[in-house]
UniProtKB/TrEMBL annotation:
This is Ef-hand domain-containing family member c2-like protein. It is found in: Cytoplasm, Cytoskeleton, Cilium axoneme. PANTHER family: EF-HAND DOMAIN C-TERMINAL CONTAINING PROTEIN (PTHR12086), EF-HAND DOMAIN-CONTAINING FAMILY MEMBER C2 (PTHR12086:SF11). GO terms for biological process: regulation of neuron projection development. Residues 24-132, 176-226 form the DM10 domain. One of its GO terms (cellular component) is axoneme. It comes from Triatoma infestans (Assassin bug). SMART domains: DM10. Keywords: Cell projection, Cytoplasm, Cytoskeleton, Repeat. It holds the Pfam family DM10_dom.
C-alpha cells in the first residue's frame, strides 16, 4: 500500500516531487474588484473595476486580468498585472503573497491597487477546503456609479420602440395622401461614365414605405426603389 499522502501546497517532506511538477497547470481563480476614485465629477466619484486573479500553484506567481465591461467604453481592460511573484506592500518586505493570503472577503494590495476578493471557482474552493481552509460564500459586487450613469444616459438617448397600434379607418384615410418629400443626390462619378444623379426621396406616412426616383433628366424619371 502506498504511503503517499494527498498533495497540498507547501509540500514539506511528505511528497518528494517538486512543486512545479505536482502542481503543473493547477491554478486558483478568484473574482475580485478594485475601486478607482475620481475627483471633480458631480454624477459619479468612483469606478468599480471587476478583475480575475489567478494564483499559479506550481511557483506561487500571480496574474490579474481586468474583465471587459460594455458600460466602461473607452476604459482599459485585459491583463493589468503580468504573471509574477508579488511582494507584500509593506516597505522593505521580502515576503511574497501566498495561498494563505487569498480567500473570499480578503483584501490584497498589488502595486498600489487594493483588490477585494468576492468569489472563486469550484476547483479553488475544493482545493482550499482540502487544506482545511474555510471558504466563505460569494460576496455581491458593489454598485458601480459610473456604469449606472452610462446606462441611464443611454436609456435617455435611445429611441423608444414604435408602438404597433391599430389604425382606425378615419386615421388611415387621413394619412393616405400624406407623404414627406426630400431632394438628394447620388455621386456616381467614380465609375466609368458615371454622373451626379438628382434624386427624389418620398416617404409615405400611411404605410411607412420609401420610394426613390432618379429625376436627373426631367423627361425621363427612373424609379430606383419602390
Amino acid at each position: 500500500k502506498s504511503e503517499r499522502k494527498p498533495s497540498v501546497y507547501a509540500l514539506g517532506e511528505v511528497v518528494k516531487l517538486p512543486p512545479w511538477l505536482v502542481f503543473d497547470k493547477h491554478v486558483l481563480a478568484f473574482d475580485s474588484y478594485y475601486l478607482e476614485k475620481l475627483h471633480g465629477t458631480a454624477s459619479y466619484n468612483v469606478i468599480v473595476h471587476r478583475c480575475k486573479i489567478y494564483f499559479f500553484l506550481e511557483d506561487g506567481t500571480i496574474k490579474v486580468i481586468e474583465q471587459k465591461n460594455p458600460l466602461h467604453d473607452g476604459l482599459s481592460s485585459g491583463c493589468i498585472i503580468h504573471r509574477q511573484r508579488i511582494r507584500y506592500p509593506a516597505e522593505g518586505s521580502e515576503d511574497f503573497y501566498d495561498i494563505l493570503d487569498l480567500n473570499i472577503g480578503n483584501d490584497v494590495e498589488f502595486f498600489g491597487k487594493l483588490f477585494r476578493l468576492i468569489d472563486c471557482d469550484e476547483f479553488t474552493r475544493k482545493f482550499l477546503n482540502r487544506l482545511g481552509i474555510f471558504v466563505p460564500d460569494k460576496i455581491p459586487l458593489p454598485e458601480d456609479p459610473f456604469s449606472k450613469m452610462v446606462k441611464e444616459k443611454k436609456q435617455k438617448t435611445t429611441k423608444p420602440p414604435r408602438l404597433n397600434k391599430k389604425m382606425t379607418l378615419d386615421e388611415f384615410l387621413c394619412d393616405a395622401n400624406r407623404k414627406l418629400t426630400f431632394y438628394a443626390y447620388w455621386d456616381d462619378r467614380d465609375n466609368e461614365n458615371g454622373i451626379v444623379h438628382l434624386l427624389l426621396v418620398i416617404y409615405y406616412v400611411v404605410d411607412e414605405t420609401i420610394e426613390i426616383k432618379d429625376i436627373t433628366e426631367k423627361d425621363k424619371v427612373i424609379n430606383i426603389l419602390k
